[in-house]
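testing teh design pipeline on a random one, pls ignore if ur not involved
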């Protein structure tokens, strides 16, 4: 039975993101088993938080970003494309011509025989065995009409079993007698035109997904930094309260007070660092090369991670 999208995404986060950042070359004797256990713990905590109605706690424990929602209905894009998510293209008489190699421009090496090419959707460039982390163009062929081959362009995210998103607003129709080659030859000119369009669609979709993911990751980083600053502040206040109590006892406990002062200085430094991290995250700048322009969609993704109703700087999203 295929694994559902939620556990699969949780496992992907634990296996290739959390473990790598914590210790890049020492993920443990069996990283896969450890990642499965961590993903199950995440999902259990997420379900428990939702059961109690604590959406804030649920947002904190759900540390992996969902993919941007796939189209399940036909829509118009700004470029005039009539996009439709097609769950089972073969049920509509569509036949897959092939995956498109990025930037092949419909040349001799248009079709991806390895099924491993595509545009990166992950801001860190991570790619999984099932293709998660990639978005690739696809060309499908309609049944011929009047002896003319007909093609449509689309794209699909790797690791998704729900079918491609196709532009049904434009059909690339060939001349009579043209055929489509599958051996890497140029093939049908109409298929090449569809391949170029599919590659452009995949590139735009990957960029949008990558920006969404980057915004979400920045929101998670902001939330973690805020929690660190809050914890450091509480700890510093508790230490200062104890120092005042010691002084009231008369002796003054100079050694204890000196130790407390040192710990308070460390707490203040941690607060300063955390607030600087929060400031940079709001501006779209994070660690590990995370950087994105914080537009409306990116701000919404940012807020999704910590479960915020409004963007931290007060602007709308």
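output:
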């Amino acid at each position: 039975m295929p694994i559902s999208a939620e556990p699969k995404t949780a496992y992907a986060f634990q296996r290739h993101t959390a473990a790598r950042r914590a210790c890049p070359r020492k993920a443990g004797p069996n990283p896969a088993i450890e990642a499965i256990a961590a993903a199950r713990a995440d999902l259990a905590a997420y379900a428990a938080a939702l059961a109690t109605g604590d959406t804030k706690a649920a947002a904190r424990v759900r540390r992996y970003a969902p993919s941007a929602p796939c189209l399940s209905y036909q829509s118009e894009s700004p470029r005039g494309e009539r996009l439709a998510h097609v769950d089972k293209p073969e049920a509509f008489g569509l036949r897959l011509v092939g995956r498109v190699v990025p930037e092949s421009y419909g040349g001799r090496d248009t079709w991806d025989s390895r099924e491993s090419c595509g545009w990166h959707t992950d801001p860190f460039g991570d790619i999984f065995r099932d293709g998660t982390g990639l978005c690739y163009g696809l060309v499908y062929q309609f049944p011929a009409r009047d002896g003319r081959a007909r093609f449509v362009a689309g794209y699909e995210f790797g690791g998704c079993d729900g079918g491609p998103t196709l532009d049904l607003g434009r059909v690339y129709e060939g001349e009579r007698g043209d055929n489509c080659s599958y051996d890497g030859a140029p093939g049908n000119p109409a298929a090449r035109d569809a391949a170029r369009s599919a590659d452009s669609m995949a590139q735009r979709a990957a960029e949008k997904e990558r920006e969404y993911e980057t915004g979400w990751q920045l929101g998670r980083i902001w939330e973690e930094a805020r929690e660190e600053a809050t914890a450091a502040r509480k700890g510093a206040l508790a230490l200062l309260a104890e120092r005042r109590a010691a002084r009231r006892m008369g002796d003054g406990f100079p050694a204890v007070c000196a130790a407390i002062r040192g710990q308070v200085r460390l707490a203040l430094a941690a607060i300063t660092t955390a607030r600087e991290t929060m400031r940079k995250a709001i501006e779209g700048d994070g660690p590990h090369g995370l950087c994105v322009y914080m537009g409306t969609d990116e701000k919404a993704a940012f807020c999704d991670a910590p479960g915020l109703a409004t963007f931290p700087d007060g602007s709308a999203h």
